[in-house]
Amino acid sequence: MDDSLILQRLRQGDKGAFKDLFDKYFDALLITALQYCKEPNDAEDVVQEVFVAFWENSQFEKMINDAALRGYLFKTLRNKCLDKLEAQKRLQTNLDAYAYCQRESGIEPSSSLEAPPPMWLELAKGLKMLPPQTLKVVQMVYFNQKKQKEAAYELALSPNTVRNQLVRAMKLLRKNLEGGK
């Protein structure tokens, strides 16, 4: 089916046109996503996110021509794949740092990590010095990658309290890392 016809039908409110769009581009987007993600489940998730964003943002209303449709889908896919890869990289770094800090704090037995950067030892010492509530907030937001609102909800705190705890933690950690200056 022609892209211009799909766009026209979407603008007219024909929800069946979205299925036609999905059927037309899903395989090509999935193959492209697999080049970035390597994991089939991650690739499928990203492709679905592209279609969801297209629908939720009513992108079909903003399309000038049918060439813009294909370009939008593939550019959005590329950006979402790169975002996912960056998030996975950050998560792995955070998990490595967290595992090291726990090991140095005596919280958990050691795992097979490579030699950490020297600053992680100082970070582990700084984390040990944080009050328990502040440490829990830091763990949730920075190590578990929860949003501040999610952490506030799970800890039954106000979002302002979570934000204040994070500011407090950063001040204390900075002070510790700078040698108590």
Automatic annotation (TrEMBL):
Belongs to the sigma-70 factor family. ECF subfamily. This is RNA polymerase sigma-70 factor, ECF subfamily. GO terms for biological process: DNA-templated transcription initiation. Keywords: Sigma factor, Transcription, Transcription regulation. It holds the Pfam family Sigma70_r2. The lineage of its organism: Bacteria, Pseudomonadati, Bacteroidota, Chitinophagia, Chitinophagales. It comes from the Bacteria. Residues 123-173 form the RNA polymerase sigma factor 70 region 4 type domain. The keyword Transcription applies.
